[in-house]
Amino acid sequence: xxxxxLLMIITASFALTCGAFAQSGSAxxxxxxxxxxxxxxxxxxQIGGTAITIEAWIKPASFGGGYWTNTIVDKTVNISGNINYxxxxxxxxxxxxxxxxxxxxxxxxxxxxxxSDVSAVTAGVWQHVAATYDGSNIRLYVNGSLVxxxxxxxxxxxxxxxxxxxxNPTPSSVGSGRAFNGMIDEVRIxxxxxxPTEITNNQNANLVGNEAGLAAYYKMNEGSGSTTAxxxxxxxxxxxxxxxxxxxxSLAMPVELTSFNAFTSGGGSVHLCWQTATETNNYGFxxxxxxxxxxxxxxxxxxxxxGSSNVQHAYTFTDHSCTGRYAYRLKQIDRDGKFExxxxxxxxxxxxxxxxxxxxxxxxxxxxxxxxSFTVPTNGHATLKIINILGQEVSTLFNGEAxxxxxxxxxxxxxxxxxxIYFSRLEYNGKVxxxxxxxxx
Length: 441
Description:
Blueprint: E1 7-11, H1 13-17, E2 25-31, E3 36-38, E4 52-60, E5 71-79, E6 82-92, E7 96-101, E8 113-115, E9 127-133, E10 137-142, E11 145-151, E12 165-166, E13 181-190, H2 196-202, E14 214-218, E15 227-228, E16 239-242, E17 246-250, E18 255-265, E19 269-290, E20 298-309, E21 313-319, E22 324-334, E23 339-341, E24 345-349, E25 357-362, E26 369-375, E27 380-388, E28 393-402, E29 408-413, E30 420-428, E31 431-439
Antiparallel strand pairs: 1-24, 2-13, 2-17, 3-12, 3-16, 4-9, 4-13, 5-6, 5-12, 6-7, 7-8, 9-10, 10-11, 13-14, 15-16, 18-19, 19-20, 19-21, 19-22, 22-23, 22-24, 25-26, 26-29, 27-28, 27-30, 30-31
């Protein structure tokens, strides 16, 4: 592996697959009475012990009763009203998120559970919720932020009897007043403990389905029909829609983000570039940064959006005087004040390059100009040329002595060229590197 002190981009899988700020497409609607999805009783979801993660996107229409109402995911066995086996994630009461599992303690009249403070979950808006248990703590998350930690050391008892259900307790308990009222999307169940970083970075991601520890995965993008597929690669837990469970439109977010990347260049600057496919009432983007020394995300600046548009738009933001590792995310703000977060991109910045490196241009896509930087380990002759998709040379940007220890930077002006794919080609000391660029006019 080539060694370099300059790490260009580390992104979540979201940046590779691209998508909206939150999962979009279809979702399932539950009436709060007797609707649910029966996902079967495959061994893959018979999870016990001390490792589990449950995630979902939810839009509750209302909360009823206590915190134990509004079941999101349930695989429990209730005996005399007590959870004896299995696990459950739900929200209710005054917007409280709750996770519990079966290990009933008759001496105390309780089972292990963790319940957030009130108003952690909001009715009428989409939000991502997650719960983890690692044998020491139950942790609850809303939109990637930790909202509650509850110490616990008991083991989950495995439920091998009843089905996994979405939107209601297990079928034997339907009608108990614990049905979900609202919409649910993108349900994921893991037999591992997802880290806070994994939860935050992947809440907007489209998973491949073969991720380690993924037990069941419901994207709910069918949009019609009486079943929803388990997108985990073994397809073991197809869900059947029961009673009046119906399809609805999920997450009509104002912005569809198709890329979000971070690039470094000379002088310790980080260049953030992102592109949208469509925008509806988009006020703009706050750029946020987190470092190892920060306790919370810090807002760096604001980039105005394009309002409502069905054409592509490219945006950039530069963070100057950086050294070390940084994480960045976008806070997209609608004109009515609603907002969503993008996934996170990480970058390592060094001000003393020592490798042969052709750095990705920024901005990218671009119109009509873009900046290209490169580094060399020792002083020597280098050429930097632009090649079109046909392999034809269209411009020579650099042909001379390149200096080591600095970022050699040039600009490509494509005002006289057509939209399309281009390549920058750097040659130095018999070595060649190339990067791909996109010109959009």
